[in-house]
Amino acid sequence: MTEETDVVVVGGGIAGLITARELGRDGLRVTVLEARDRLGGRVWTDHRLGRDLEIGGTWLHWVQPHAWAEVTRYGLEVTRGPRPEEAYWLAGNEVRKGTLDGFMELIDPGMRRLLHETMRWIPRPDAPTSAAGLETVDRFSVQDKLDELALPVEEYHANEAAWVGHFNAPLEDGAFTSALRWTAATAGSWHLMHEASAVFRLASGTRTLVEAIAADADADVRTSAEVSRIEHGPAGAVVTTSSGDRIQARRVVLTLPQNILGDLDVSPRLCAEKRAAGREKTAAKGVKVWIRVRGPIEPFFAYSSAAHPLSVVRTEFLGEDDAVLVSFGADSRRISPHDVDAVRAALRVWRDDLEVLDVTGHDWMADPHSRETWLMQRPHQLTRYFAAQQRAEGVLHFAGSDYANVWAGFIDGAIESGLRVAREIRTAH
Ligand SMILES: Cc1cc2nc3c(=O)[nH]c(=O)nc-3n(C[C@H](O)[C@H](O)[C@H](O)COP(=O)(O)OP(=O)(O)OC[C@H]3O[C@@H](n4cnc5c(N)ncnc54)[C@H](O)[C@@H]3O)c2cc1C
C-alpha cells in the first residue's frame, strides 16, 4: 500500500526539521523520514566522559542570523568554555608557550595578508558567486595562498594550524574561496570569524535546539526510516524506504550532505553537477576528539601544524579533579577518536604533563549517513557546482547546510537552507 502526503522531507537534521516546521505552519501534510534512530543529524549531544558533549556541531554566534533567531525564538541559553590562560604552539620542532593574545598577534599579519581581498571576491556572502571572475580565484587551495605569503616558520605553522581547525581538512584540498566565504560572513574580520566559529555554545546542548524545533513542527516525524529510492515526475514523487514502505508526495525535500546525496537511487537521476560534487567529495575529512584528563589544570589551548594528527586542542570543561578537552585533526584516517594511546601520543607534541583518562568521538567520515564533517569546498566547487546544488529539479528540492549561502557548513546554514526551500515550495503552490 502507498501512503499519500503533501511533502516528504528526507533527513531529520536541522535543515529537515526547519523545513518541516515551516511547511507544517503552511498547513501542508509533511512526513520527515530520518535514517538514524535519533534526530539532529550532524548535531548530536551525547552524555560521555561525565559531561553532555557535542559529538558534532557546537558553536554558534549572534552574527549568524538564522541560528540566533532560533536562540531567541526558543529562549535557549548560550554559554562558553573557559577562557584559555595558556597557549602552546610550535616553531618548527620547538614548543612555544604564551598567551591567547600573544598567539592572536602572531597569526594576525598572515591572516590579514591572506584575507585582504575577501570583500572583493565575496562582496555579498548571501550571493557567494556574484563577483565577476570568481573562477580565477576559485582554482586555488588555502595551501596555495598560504605558501604565497612565505611566512616565517613560526607564523606559518600557527596560521596553518588555525586554518586546519577551520577546515577540518588538509589545506591543499580546501578551496581558498571557502576561507573567503567564512570571512565575508563577518564583513572581512578574521577575529570575528574566529569567534563566531568556535566560542559560544548552547548551555544545555544542541539537543535543546533539535527538540524545540521538532516539538514545534506539525509533521509526522519518523526515525529509523532510511530512504532508499525516489522516483519523480511532473506530478509528484514516490519515496521508498529500506524497509519497503512507499509514500506518494507532491514534493520531496532532500537534505542529504554533499558526500552522500549522489549515492541515493533517484530516478530520473539528479543533474550532472550534483552528482559530480558528490563524486569529488568535500574537502573536510577530519576528526573531532573529546579528551578527559586528570585535573585540576589551567585552561589552555594549543595549535600544532597540519602534519600532526591533532592540530588544535583546548579546554572545554573544567572540573575539580578532571578537565575535558576538545580537539580537531585534519584527517580522520590518521587518528581514531577512540584510541587513547594515539591521542596520548598526539598531546605529547605540546605537553607531557597531561594524564589522559579517556577519549571519545564519532567517525563521521565512516558514517554512511554523513560521510563528512562540515562543508569545506574543494577548489572549483563553488563556481562549478554550487548554483546547481541549490536548484530544484522538478518536484525535488534541496536543503542542507552544504547548500547554504552565508554560513554554509554551519548550523546557521542548515536553518537558512530550510527556510529557503520552504519558501520555494510555498511559492510553487
Ligand atoms: C564534528 C562536527 C563539528 C561541527 N562543528 C560545528 C560548529 O561548531 N558550529 C556549526 O555551526 N556547525 C558545526 N558543524 C556542522 C553542522 O553540524 C552541520 O553543518 C549541520 O548540522 C548540518 O545540518 P543538515 O541538516 O544540513 O545536515 P545533517 O545534519 O547531515 O542532516 C541530514 C540528515 O539526513 C539523514 N539521512 C542521511 N541519509 C538518509 C537517508 N537515505 N534517508 C533518510 N535520512 C537520511 C541523516 O541521518 C541526517 O540526520 C559540525 C559538524 C561536525 C560533524
Automatic annotation (TrEMBL):
What SUPFAM superfamilies does this protein map onto?
A: FAD/NAD(P)-binding domain
Ranges for domain Amine oxidase: 14-425
Q: Name one Pfam family in it.
A: Amino_oxidase
User: Which parts form a coiled-coil structure per UniProt?
Assistant: none
What's the domain of life for this entry? Bacteria
User: InterPro entries in the record, alphabetically?
Assistant: Amino_oxidase, FAD/NAD-bd_sf, Flavin_MAO
Q: Which family does it belong to?
A: Belongs to the flavin monoamine oxidase family.
Spell out the protein name for this chain.
Answer: Flavin monoamine oxidase family protein
| Organism annotation | Saccharopolyspora rosea
